[in-house]
Amino acid sequence: MVEMLRTTDRATRERLIKEAGYNVFGLPSDAVYIDLLSDSGTTAMSDYQWAGMMMGDEAYAGSRNFYNLRDTIKEVMGYGYVVPAHQGRGAEHILMNVFVKPGDRVLGNMHFDTTEGHILLKGAEPVNCLAEAGYKVGEEADFKGNFDLDLLEAEINKDVDKAALILITITCNNNGGQPVSMENIRGVRKIADKYGIPVFFDAARFAENAYFIKHLEPGYKDKPVAEIVKEMFSYGDGCTMSAKKDALVNIGGFVAFRSEEHYRKAIEWQVPFEGYVTYGGLAGRDLEAMARGLKEVLNEDYLEDRIGQVRYLADLLVEAGIPIVRPPGGHGVYIDAKSMLPHIPRHQFPAQALTVELYVEGGIRGVELGGCAFGYKDPETGEDVWPELELVRLAIPRRVYTDRHMMVVARALKAVKQRASSIKGLRLVYEAPVMRHFTARFERLE
Ligand code: P70
Protein backbone atom coordinates (compact mmCIF):
# COMPACT_ATOMS: atom_id res chain seq x y z
CA MET A 1 0.00 0.00 0.00
CA VAL A 2 1.31 3.47 -0.78
CA GLU A 3 -0.12 6.78 0.30
CA MET A 4 0.18 10.22 -1.26
CA LEU A 5 2.17 12.77 0.66
CA ARG A 6 0.84 16.31 0.72
CA THR A 7 2.77 19.51 0.98
CA THR A 8 1.51 22.68 2.62
CA ASP A 9 2.94 26.18 2.68
CA ARG A 10 4.45 27.82 5.71
CA ALA A 11 1.60 30.29 6.24
CA THR A 12 -0.91 27.43 6.36
CA ARG A 13 1.23 25.54 8.82
CA GLU A 14 1.54 28.63 11.04
CA ARG A 15 -2.24 28.97 11.04
CA LEU A 16 -2.91 25.29 11.70
CA ILE A 17 -0.45 24.94 14.55
CA LYS A 18 -1.91 28.01 16.23
CA GLU A 19 -5.42 26.57 15.87
CA ALA A 20 -4.08 23.31 17.37
CA GLY A 21 -2.95 25.19 20.50
CA TYR A 22 0.70 24.68 19.51
CA ASN A 23 0.27 20.97 20.08
CA VAL A 24 1.00 18.74 17.08
CA PHE A 25 -1.54 16.15 18.29
CA GLY A 26 -4.21 18.63 17.21
CA LEU A 27 -3.12 18.77 13.56
CA PRO A 28 -5.04 17.03 10.79
CA SER A 29 -2.63 14.43 9.38
CA ASP A 30 -3.36 15.67 5.87
CA ALA A 31 -1.43 18.78 6.79
CA VAL A 32 1.64 16.76 7.81
CA TYR A 33 4.29 15.99 5.20
CA ILE A 34 6.41 13.44 7.05
CA ASP A 35 4.73 12.07 10.15
CA LEU A 36 7.11 10.99 12.88
CA LEU A 37 4.62 11.56 15.72
CA SER A 38 4.63 7.89 16.56
CA ASP A 39 5.76 4.44 15.47
CA SER A 40 2.55 3.19 17.06
CA GLY A 41 -0.13 1.84 14.74
CA THR A 42 1.57 3.52 11.80
CA THR A 43 3.12 0.37 10.35
CA ALA A 44 2.45 -0.74 6.78
CA MET A 45 1.18 -4.31 6.98
CA SER A 46 2.62 -7.02 4.76
CA ASP A 47 0.91 -9.04 2.01
CA TYR A 48 0.86 -11.98 4.41
CA GLN A 49 -0.90 -9.95 7.10
CA TRP A 50 -3.43 -8.56 4.63
CA ALA A 51 -4.14 -12.08 3.43
CA GLY A 52 -4.80 -12.98 7.07
CA MET A 53 -7.25 -10.08 7.35
CA MET A 54 -9.39 -11.86 4.76
CA MET A 55 -9.57 -14.90 7.02
CA GLY A 56 -11.22 -13.20 9.97
CA ASP A 57 -13.54 -15.41 11.99
CA GLU A 58 -15.89 -12.87 13.50
CA ALA A 59 -17.73 -15.24 15.83
CA TYR A 60 -18.48 -13.59 19.15
CA ALA A 61 -16.77 -16.41 21.04
CA GLY A 62 -14.05 -18.87 20.11
CA SER A 63 -12.74 -17.21 16.94
CA ARG A 64 -10.10 -19.34 15.24
CA ASN A 65 -7.94 -16.22 14.98
CA PHE A 66 -7.83 -16.00 18.76
CA TYR A 67 -6.50 -19.55 19.03
CA ASN A 68 -3.89 -18.77 16.41
CA LEU A 69 -2.85 -15.66 18.33
CA ARG A 70 -2.72 -17.56 21.61
CA ASP A 71 -0.60 -20.34 20.10
CA THR A 72 1.71 -17.79 18.46
CA ILE A 73 2.28 -15.94 21.74
CA LYS A 74 3.00 -19.23 23.45
CA GLU A 75 5.48 -20.11 20.71
CA VAL A 76 7.21 -16.71 20.50
CA MET A 77 7.12 -15.61 24.16
CA GLY A 78 6.42 -18.76 26.08
CA TYR A 79 3.30 -17.45 27.86
CA GLY A 80 0.24 -19.67 27.51
CA TYR A 81 -2.57 -17.48 28.88
CA VAL A 82 -3.51 -14.63 26.57
CA VAL A 83 -5.93 -11.76 27.17
CA PRO A 84 -6.46 -9.61 24.05
CA ALA A 85 -7.11 -5.89 24.57
CA HIS A 86 -7.91 -3.00 22.26
CA GLN A 87 -4.38 -1.58 22.64
CA GLY A 88 -1.49 -1.32 25.10
CA ARG A 89 -3.23 0.88 27.62
CA GLY A 90 -6.20 -1.51 27.76
CA ALA A 91 -3.69 -4.22 28.64
CA GLU A 92 -2.09 -1.99 31.28
CA HIS A 93 -5.46 -1.29 32.84
CA ILE A 94 -6.03 -5.03 33.24
CA LEU A 95 -2.53 -5.72 34.57
CA MET A 96 -2.78 -2.99 37.23
CA ASN A 97 -6.07 -4.42 38.41
CA VAL A 98 -4.56 -7.89 38.79
CA PHE A 99 -1.56 -6.80 40.85
CA VAL A 100 -1.81 -3.27 42.21
CA LYS A 101 -3.78 -1.72 45.11
CA PRO A 102 -3.97 1.93 46.18
CA GLY A 103 -0.80 2.87 48.06
CA ASP A 104 1.33 0.24 46.28
CA ARG A 105 4.50 0.97 44.34
CA VAL A 106 5.29 -0.23 40.82
CA LEU A 107 8.99 -0.38 40.04
CA GLY A 108 10.35 -0.07 36.53
CA ASN A 109 13.39 0.96 34.54
CA MET A 110 11.34 3.93 33.31
CA HIS A 111 7.55 3.77 32.96
CA PHE A 112 6.13 5.19 29.77
CA ASP A 113 3.34 7.78 29.79
CA THR A 114 0.28 5.55 29.64
CA THR A 115 1.78 3.07 32.10
CA GLU A 116 2.55 5.83 34.56
CA GLY A 117 -0.99 7.12 34.02
CA HIS A 118 -2.52 3.74 34.85
CA ILE A 119 -0.38 3.31 37.95
CA LEU A 120 -1.49 6.76 39.16
CA LEU A 121 -5.14 6.09 38.30
CA LYS A 122 -4.91 3.02 40.55
CA GLY A 123 -3.72 5.25 43.41
CA ALA A 124 -0.25 3.70 43.32
CA GLU A 125 3.20 5.20 42.87
CA PRO A 126 5.33 4.75 39.75
CA VAL A 127 9.02 4.37 40.65
CA ASN A 128 11.76 4.61 38.02
CA CYS A 129 15.02 2.77 38.68
CA LEU A 130 16.91 3.56 35.48
CA ALA A 131 20.70 3.39 35.72
CA GLU A 132 22.46 6.75 35.71
CA ALA A 133 23.89 6.28 32.18
CA GLY A 134 20.35 6.32 30.81
CA TYR A 135 20.00 10.00 31.68
CA LYS A 136 23.23 11.11 30.02
CA VAL A 137 21.94 12.02 26.60
CA GLY A 138 25.17 12.83 24.80
CA GLU A 139 27.26 9.96 26.16
CA GLU A 140 27.58 6.76 24.17
CA ALA A 141 26.90 3.60 26.19
CA ASP A 142 25.30 0.26 25.46
CA PHE A 143 22.01 -0.71 27.10
CA LYS A 144 20.96 2.66 28.41
CA GLY A 145 17.56 1.15 29.25
CA ASN A 146 19.07 -0.93 32.07
CA PHE A 147 17.94 -0.85 35.68
CA ASP A 148 20.28 0.29 38.40
CA LEU A 149 19.90 -2.98 40.29
CA ASP A 150 21.09 -1.54 43.61
CA LEU A 151 18.56 1.25 43.30
CA LEU A 152 15.83 -1.28 42.50
CA GLU A 153 16.64 -3.25 45.63
CA ALA A 154 16.86 -0.09 47.74
CA GLU A 155 13.45 1.04 46.47
CA ILE A 156 11.94 -2.37 47.26
CA ASN A 157 13.42 -2.21 50.75
CA LYS A 158 11.74 1.12 51.45
CA ASP A 159 8.59 -0.94 51.94
CA VAL A 160 8.69 -4.54 50.76
CA ASP A 161 4.95 -5.04 51.30
CA LYS A 162 4.10 -2.19 48.97
CA ALA A 163 6.34 -3.35 46.09
CA ALA A 164 3.54 -4.88 44.03
CA LEU A 165 5.11 -5.36 40.64
CA ILE A 166 8.26 -4.88 38.60
CA LEU A 167 7.82 -3.78 35.01
CA ILE A 168 10.67 -3.99 32.50
CA THR A 169 9.99 -1.75 29.52
CA ILE A 170 11.74 -3.06 26.42
CA THR A 171 12.94 -0.99 24.78
CA CYS A 172 12.91 2.02 27.11
CA ASN A 173 10.87 4.60 25.23
CA ASN A 174 11.36 7.71 27.39
CA ASN A 175 15.08 8.04 26.94
CA GLY A 176 15.54 7.06 23.32
CA GLY A 177 14.21 3.56 22.67
CA GLN A 178 17.22 2.22 24.57
CA PRO A 179 17.59 -1.52 25.07
CA VAL A 180 17.84 -3.54 28.29
CA SER A 181 20.51 -6.24 28.35
CA MET A 182 19.86 -9.90 29.08
CA GLU A 183 22.23 -9.72 32.01
CA ASN A 184 20.23 -6.86 33.49
CA ILE A 185 16.93 -8.69 32.95
CA ARG A 186 18.41 -11.71 34.71
CA GLY A 187 19.51 -9.44 37.57
CA VAL A 188 16.00 -8.03 37.94
CA ARG A 189 14.58 -11.56 38.11
CA LYS A 190 17.02 -12.53 40.82
CA ILE A 191 16.05 -9.57 43.00
CA ALA A 192 12.35 -10.16 42.34
CA ASP A 193 12.71 -13.78 43.45
CA LYS A 194 14.45 -12.74 46.65
CA TYR A 195 11.40 -10.66 47.62
CA GLY A 196 8.67 -12.64 45.86
CA ILE A 197 7.61 -9.84 43.47
CA PRO A 198 6.13 -10.61 40.04
CA VAL A 199 8.07 -9.44 36.97
CA PHE A 200 6.30 -8.31 33.81
CA PHE A 201 7.55 -6.89 30.55
CA ASP A 202 6.11 -3.93 28.74
CA ALA A 203 6.91 -5.69 25.49
CA ALA A 204 5.90 -3.05 22.93
CA ARG A 205 9.31 -3.19 21.21
CA PHE A 206 10.56 -6.61 22.27
CA ALA A 207 12.04 -7.62 18.91
CA GLU A 208 14.03 -4.40 18.64
CA ASN A 209 15.37 -5.07 22.14
CA ALA A 210 16.40 -8.59 21.12
CA TYR A 211 18.16 -7.20 18.04
CA PHE A 212 20.34 -5.02 20.26
CA ILE A 213 21.13 -7.95 22.56
CA LYS A 214 22.23 -9.95 19.54
CA HIS A 215 24.54 -7.22 18.29
CA LEU A 216 25.84 -5.75 21.53
CA GLU A 217 25.86 -8.36 24.26
CA PRO A 218 28.65 -10.89 24.50
CA GLY A 219 27.53 -14.43 23.77
CA TYR A 220 24.50 -13.63 21.60
CA LYS A 221 25.82 -12.80 18.15
CA ASP A 222 25.27 -16.29 16.76
CA LYS A 223 21.85 -16.80 18.37
CA PRO A 224 18.72 -16.26 16.28
CA VAL A 225 16.60 -13.32 17.45
CA ALA A 226 13.69 -15.71 18.05
CA GLU A 227 15.79 -17.60 20.58
CA ILE A 228 16.90 -14.39 22.30
CA VAL A 229 13.26 -13.29 22.55
CA LYS A 230 12.33 -16.60 24.17
CA GLU A 231 15.13 -16.25 26.71
CA MET A 232 14.18 -12.63 27.59
CA PHE A 233 10.60 -13.62 28.32
CA SER A 234 11.69 -16.70 30.28
CA TYR A 235 12.68 -14.33 33.11
CA GLY A 236 9.18 -12.83 33.38
CA ASP A 237 5.78 -13.88 34.68
CA GLY A 238 4.08 -12.31 31.69
CA CYS A 239 3.85 -9.16 29.64
CA THR A 240 1.65 -6.39 28.40
CA MET A 241 1.96 -5.46 24.78
CA SER A 242 0.92 -2.60 22.59
CA ALA A 243 0.72 -4.61 19.37
CA LYS A 244 0.80 -1.33 17.44
CA LYS A 245 4.58 -1.46 17.60
CA ASP A 246 6.40 -4.78 17.25
CA ALA A 247 3.35 -6.82 16.29
CA LEU A 248 3.29 -4.66 13.14
CA VAL A 249 -0.43 -3.85 13.21
CA ASN A 250 -2.52 -0.69 13.25
CA ILE A 251 -4.47 -1.51 16.40
CA GLY A 252 -4.40 -4.11 19.17
CA GLY A 253 -2.73 -5.30 22.33
CA PHE A 254 -2.74 -8.05 24.90
CA VAL A 255 -1.67 -9.20 28.33
CA ALA A 256 -0.06 -12.61 28.52
CA PHE A 257 0.52 -14.67 31.65
CA ARG A 258 2.44 -17.73 32.63
CA SER A 259 0.00 -18.56 35.42
CA GLU A 260 -3.62 -19.56 35.09
CA GLU A 261 -4.42 -17.92 38.42
CA HIS A 262 -3.32 -14.50 37.18
CA TYR A 263 -5.21 -15.08 33.95
CA ARG A 264 -8.44 -15.87 35.82
CA LYS A 265 -8.19 -12.58 37.67
CA ALA A 266 -7.39 -10.68 34.49
CA ILE A 267 -10.46 -11.81 32.60
CA GLU A 268 -12.67 -10.44 35.37
CA TRP A 269 -11.47 -7.02 34.16
CA GLN A 270 -11.23 -7.87 30.49
CA VAL A 271 -14.86 -8.82 30.01
CA PRO A 272 -16.41 -5.58 31.38
CA PHE A 273 -13.84 -3.23 29.84
CA GLU A 274 -12.44 -4.81 26.68
CA GLY A 275 -14.84 -7.49 25.52
CA TYR A 276 -15.25 -11.25 25.65
CA VAL A 277 -12.15 -13.31 26.42
CA THR A 278 -11.47 -14.39 22.83
CA TYR A 279 -11.65 -10.96 21.23
CA GLY A 280 -10.95 -8.20 23.81
CA GLY A 281 -12.03 -5.18 21.78
CA LEU A 282 -10.68 -6.43 18.46
CA ALA A 283 -12.11 -8.00 15.33
CA GLY A 284 -11.07 -11.55 14.46
CA ARG A 285 -9.18 -10.21 11.45
CA ASP A 286 -7.17 -7.89 13.72
CA LEU A 287 -6.19 -10.85 15.90
CA GLU A 288 -4.99 -12.68 12.80
CA ALA A 289 -2.88 -9.76 11.55
CA MET A 290 -1.36 -9.50 15.03
CA ALA A 291 -0.49 -13.20 15.16
CA ARG A 292 1.21 -12.96 11.77
CA GLY A 293 3.02 -9.73 12.69
CA LEU A 294 4.44 -11.23 15.88
CA LYS A 295 6.33 -13.76 13.79
CA GLU A 296 7.24 -11.46 10.93
CA VAL A 297 8.94 -9.00 13.28
CA LEU A 298 11.51 -11.66 14.18
CA ASN A 299 12.89 -11.59 10.63
CA GLU A 300 16.45 -10.38 11.02
CA ASP A 301 16.69 -8.72 7.60
CA TYR A 302 13.65 -6.67 8.54
CA LEU A 303 15.16 -5.68 11.90
CA GLU A 304 18.47 -4.75 10.31
CA ASP A 305 16.69 -2.55 7.78
CA ARG A 306 14.47 -0.95 10.40
CA ILE A 307 17.10 -0.18 12.99
CA GLY A 308 19.52 0.70 10.21
CA GLN A 309 17.15 3.43 9.04
CA VAL A 310 16.98 4.90 12.54
CA ARG A 311 20.79 4.86 12.60
CA TYR A 312 20.89 6.53 9.18
CA LEU A 313 18.77 9.46 10.35
CA ALA A 314 20.83 9.72 13.54
CA ASP A 315 24.04 9.91 11.50
CA LEU A 316 22.62 12.68 9.31
CA LEU A 317 21.65 14.68 12.38
CA VAL A 318 25.00 14.21 14.09
CA GLU A 319 26.68 15.39 10.89
CA ALA A 320 24.46 18.48 10.94
CA GLY A 321 25.47 19.21 14.54
CA ILE A 322 22.03 18.49 16.02
CA PRO A 323 22.32 17.28 19.63
CA ILE A 324 20.69 13.84 19.83
CA VAL A 325 20.50 11.01 22.32
CA ARG A 326 23.41 8.70 21.65
CA PRO A 327 23.54 6.02 20.62
CA PRO A 328 20.21 6.06 18.76
CA GLY A 329 17.77 3.40 19.93
CA GLY A 330 15.38 1.15 18.09
CA HIS A 331 12.42 3.19 16.95
CA GLY A 332 13.43 6.79 16.57
CA VAL A 333 15.91 9.57 17.01
CA TYR A 334 15.55 11.81 20.03
CA ILE A 335 16.74 15.41 20.01
CA ASP A 336 18.00 17.05 23.17
CA ALA A 337 15.98 20.26 23.30
CA LYS A 338 17.81 21.49 26.40
CA SER A 339 21.02 21.84 24.41
CA MET A 340 19.40 22.91 21.16
CA LEU A 341 17.36 25.70 22.77
CA PRO A 342 19.33 26.53 25.93
CA HIS A 343 17.77 30.00 26.18
CA ILE A 344 14.26 28.60 26.82
CA PRO A 345 13.61 27.73 30.49
CA ARG A 346 11.88 24.48 31.47
CA HIS A 347 8.56 26.12 32.30
CA GLN A 348 8.42 27.46 28.73
CA PHE A 349 8.64 23.91 27.30
CA PRO A 350 11.71 23.95 25.02
CA ALA A 351 11.01 20.50 23.52
CA GLN A 352 7.43 21.47 22.73
CA ALA A 353 8.68 24.70 21.13
CA LEU A 354 11.15 22.74 19.00
CA THR A 355 8.42 20.31 17.92
CA VAL A 356 6.30 23.27 16.82
CA GLU A 357 9.18 24.85 14.88
CA LEU A 358 10.02 21.62 13.06
CA TYR A 359 6.42 21.42 11.89
CA VAL A 360 6.37 25.05 10.79
CA GLU A 361 9.70 24.64 9.02
CA GLY A 362 9.13 21.44 7.07
CA GLY A 363 5.68 20.03 7.79
CA ILE A 364 7.39 17.35 9.86
CA ARG A 365 5.64 16.12 12.98
CA GLY A 366 7.70 14.80 15.88
CA VAL A 367 6.56 14.64 19.49
CA GLU A 368 7.59 16.21 22.75
CA LEU A 369 8.81 13.77 25.41
CA GLY A 370 9.86 16.18 28.10
CA GLY A 371 8.34 18.58 30.58
CA CYS A 372 4.86 18.38 29.13
CA ALA A 373 4.67 14.58 28.75
CA PHE A 374 6.35 13.72 32.04
CA GLY A 375 6.20 16.83 34.19
CA TYR A 376 3.41 17.46 36.70
CA LYS A 377 2.35 19.69 39.55
CA ASP A 378 3.18 18.35 42.97
CA PRO A 379 -0.23 17.67 44.57
CA GLU A 380 0.97 18.93 47.96
CA THR A 381 3.04 22.00 47.09
CA GLY A 382 1.51 22.84 43.71
CA GLU A 383 5.07 23.28 42.40
CA ASP A 384 6.08 22.07 38.95
CA VAL A 385 8.10 18.85 38.96
CA TRP A 386 10.27 18.45 35.87
CA PRO A 387 11.62 15.21 34.46
CA GLU A 388 15.36 14.98 33.89
CA LEU A 389 15.01 14.72 30.11
CA GLU A 390 13.65 17.28 27.67
CA LEU A 391 13.48 15.53 24.31
CA VAL A 392 11.82 15.70 20.92
CA ARG A 393 11.26 12.25 19.48
CA LEU A 394 11.26 11.56 15.77
CA ALA A 395 9.62 8.14 15.78
CA ILE A 396 9.98 6.24 12.55
CA PRO A 397 6.98 4.21 11.41
CA ARG A 398 7.84 0.66 10.40
CA ARG A 399 8.06 -0.16 6.69
CA VAL A 400 6.70 3.23 5.59
CA TYR A 401 9.34 5.83 4.75
CA THR A 402 12.50 5.69 2.63
CA ASP A 403 15.91 7.07 3.44
CA ARG A 404 15.12 9.98 1.10
CA HIS A 405 12.45 11.06 3.58
CA MET A 406 15.06 10.95 6.31
CA MET A 407 17.19 13.35 4.26
CA VAL A 408 14.28 15.81 4.13
CA VAL A 409 13.90 15.59 7.91
CA ALA A 410 17.59 16.29 8.45
CA ARG A 411 17.47 19.27 6.11
CA ALA A 412 14.51 20.80 7.96
CA LEU A 413 16.21 20.37 11.32
CA LYS A 414 19.31 22.03 10.01
CA ALA A 415 17.20 25.04 9.02
CA VAL A 416 15.60 25.13 12.49
CA LYS A 417 19.04 24.99 14.07
CA GLN A 418 20.15 28.04 12.11
CA ARG A 419 17.45 30.18 13.68
CA ALA A 420 17.44 28.42 17.06
CA SER A 421 18.38 31.45 19.12
CA SER A 422 15.31 33.37 17.92
CA ILE A 423 12.83 30.60 18.81
CA LYS A 424 10.43 31.57 21.61
CA GLY A 425 9.06 29.45 24.42
CA LEU A 426 5.43 28.50 25.09
CA ARG A 427 2.94 29.04 27.88
CA LEU A 428 0.77 26.07 28.94
CA VAL A 429 -2.86 27.18 29.00
CA TYR A 430 -4.75 23.88 29.30
CA GLU A 431 -3.80 20.52 30.81
CA ALA A 432 -5.73 17.33 31.64
CA PRO A 433 -5.13 15.70 35.07
CA VAL A 434 -3.24 12.67 33.60
CA MET A 435 -1.46 12.11 30.26
CA ARG A 436 -1.65 15.84 29.66
CA HIS A 437 0.54 15.99 26.53
CA PHE A 438 -2.09 14.42 24.29
CA THR A 439 -4.53 17.30 24.72
CA ALA A 440 -2.51 20.18 26.21
CA ARG A 441 -2.87 23.65 24.69
CA PHE A 442 -0.24 26.37 24.56
CA GLU A 443 0.29 29.98 23.55
CA ARG A 444 3.48 31.21 21.95
CA LEU A 445 5.41 33.77 24.00
CA GLU A 446 6.39 36.81 21.98
C1 P70 B 1 4.32 5.87 21.41
C2 P70 B 1 3.02 5.41 22.03
C3 P70 B 1 2.65 3.64 23.62
C4 P70 B 1 3.14 2.72 24.62
C5 P70 B 1 4.51 2.49 24.79
C6 P70 B 1 4.96 1.62 25.80
C7 P70 B 1 6.41 1.35 26.02
C8 P70 B 1 2.74 1.19 26.41
C9 P70 B 1 2.24 2.05 25.44
C10 P70 B 1 0.75 2.23 25.30
C11 P70 B 1 2.24 6.53 22.66
C12 P70 B 1 2.43 7.85 22.02
C13 P70 B 1 3.30 8.74 22.59
C14 P70 B 1 3.53 9.96 21.98
C15 P70 B 1 2.88 10.24 20.79
C16 P70 B 1 2.00 9.34 20.24
C17 P70 B 1 1.79 8.13 20.87
N1 P70 B 1 3.40 4.45 23.05
N2 P70 B 1 4.05 1.01 26.56
O1 P70 B 1 4.28 6.44 20.34
O2 P70 B 1 0.29 1.56 24.20
O3 P70 B 1 -0.65 3.33 22.72
O4 P70 B 1 -1.22 0.93 22.38
O5 P70 B 1 -2.13 2.15 24.32
O6 P70 B 1 5.43 3.09 24.02
O7 P70 B 1 5.40 5.61 21.97
P1 P70 B 1 -1.00 2.02 23.37
Q: How would you describe what is shown here?
A:
- It is built from 16 helices and 16 strands.
- The mean pLDDT is 97.
- It has helices spanning 10-19, 47-53, 64-77, 88-99, 113-121, 149-158, 182-195, 206-216, 225-234, 260-273, 284-296, 300-319, 337-340, 350-362, 371-374, 403-418; strands at 34-35, 81-85, 105-108, 125-128, 163-169, 199-202, 238-242, 253-257, 332-336, 364-365, 367-369, 376-377, 384-385, 391-395, 426-430, 441-444.
- The protein has 446 residues and is α/β, with parallel strands linked by helices.
- The chain is globular, with a radius of gyration of 21 Å.
- The chain has a 7-stranded mixed β-sheet with strand order 2-8-7-6-5-3-4, sandwiched between helices.
- The protein has 2 domains: 10-32 and 300-444, Aspartate Aminotransferase, domain 1; 47-296, Type I PLP-dependent aspartate aminotransferase-like (Major domain) (Aspartate Aminotransferase, domain 2).
- A hairpin with a 6-residue loop joins β12 (376-377) and β13 (384-385).
- The structure holds ligand P70.
- Ligand P70 is lined by residues 37-38, 40, 87-89, 112, 114-115, 169, 173, 202, 204, 242, 244, 253, 367, 395.
